[in-house]
Amino acid sequence: MTIGERIRGALVALAPLDPADAPAWERWLSDPVTTRYLYGRRGPPDSVATLLELRSWGRQALADPHLVAFGIEEIGGGTVIGNARLQLWAWSRARFSILIGEAAHRGSGQGTEATALVCEYAFERLGLREIVLDVDQRNAAAVRAYLKVGFIPGRGDSMRLRPEGLRLAAARNVRAQRYDQDASA
Q1: By the number of CB atoms within 10 A of the CB, which of 18, 30, 80, 118 ranks highest?
Q2: Do the domain assignments include residue 58?
Q3: C-alpha to C-alpha distance for 2 and 63, rounded to whole angstroms
């Protein structure tokens, strides 16, 4: 399934996942720099998914009641720059994953904001109690982004977030922005 309406942030909007974006997905998944941390310990698949397979995945994601998939668009032009997913589990938990496929949009805070927006949606609209993820520890930018949103390290490569962690991180980030503004004035 996907969301019905766009959820806007300052940098990105979460949008309904659209299988018509499969050509962008194919381009992203064909780029070894984009996928270097994507597959974790199991490594990349033997072959890159085809356009037809990716469109099929998109349609299946929309039909899966245990998956919430999001497109990620830049605010300025509405270009799809990535996607994110929540795999819904029992006991009000979910596994989160994200891919910022467009290289020019990495390192700009857009992935961090998209992560925070998905987590807010998960806690406020879906009523989840916990979100978990796995992150390759060599992906320092991703680890920093998850920590900034409020995830805490778990065992191995896992991290977890509860609603209070998201709220505390949001308050901490607001205070840091105010400090930065006061310091530059």
Answers
A1: 118
A2: yes
A3: 9
What's the number of domains the chain is made of? 1
- Name the residue range of residue 165's domain: 7-184
CATH code at position 38: 3.40.630.30
The average confidence (pLDDT) of the chain is 91
The answer to whether residues 32 and 39 touch, using CB atoms and an 8 Å cutoff, is no
Split at pLDDT 50, 70, 90, the class of 43 is confident
User: Does residue 160 lie within any of the structural domains?
Assistant: yes
**Distant-in-sequence, close-in-space partners of 165: CB < 8 Å, separation ≥ 6:** 150, 151, 152
Look at residue 23 and give its three-state secondary structure.
helix
pLDDT in tens, 14-41: 999 999 999 999 999 999 888 888 887 7
Q: Tell me if 75 sits within 8 A of 12, measured CB to CB.
A: yes
Classify the phi-psi angles of 88: left when phi > 0, otherwise alpha if psi is within -120 to 50, otherwise beta.
beta
